Amino acid sequence: MLVSQILKTKGDLVFTVTPGDTIGAVTALLHARRVGALVVVDAGKVVGIVSERDVVRSLAELGAPALDRPITSCMTSDVLFARPGETVDALLERMTDRRVRHLPVCEDDKLLGIVSIGDLVKHKISEVVAEADGLKAYIAAG
Question: By percentage, how much of the chain surpasses pLDDT 70?
């Protein structure tokens, strides 16, 4: 299965923030939107990604004063991207190797969506279940 197929199923909604947003504001948005990561966009270009882990690390280091700092102080600026034509298996391998849970999906510098490791695992399980059901039907038909 390709990333583009996953986006057709889950949709292309991506919650974004700007580099000037504070960690406190981003934390509130993570909570309100019930997501684990937000894409940081500046003038239409992806410049970073911030996850709950990034926020927790910042709070652990600086305490409450961290909430007033710009998100650029804790975001990941070396963003790993997914392309629409990539396979679930390729992304699962990349995400596991690099220990990331979210990948913005981009093509020609345009943000098309975001996939989480949970999205990929869900689709991988669906594939395995469909294959098992097909084999069961084949065996039952004799």
Answer: 100
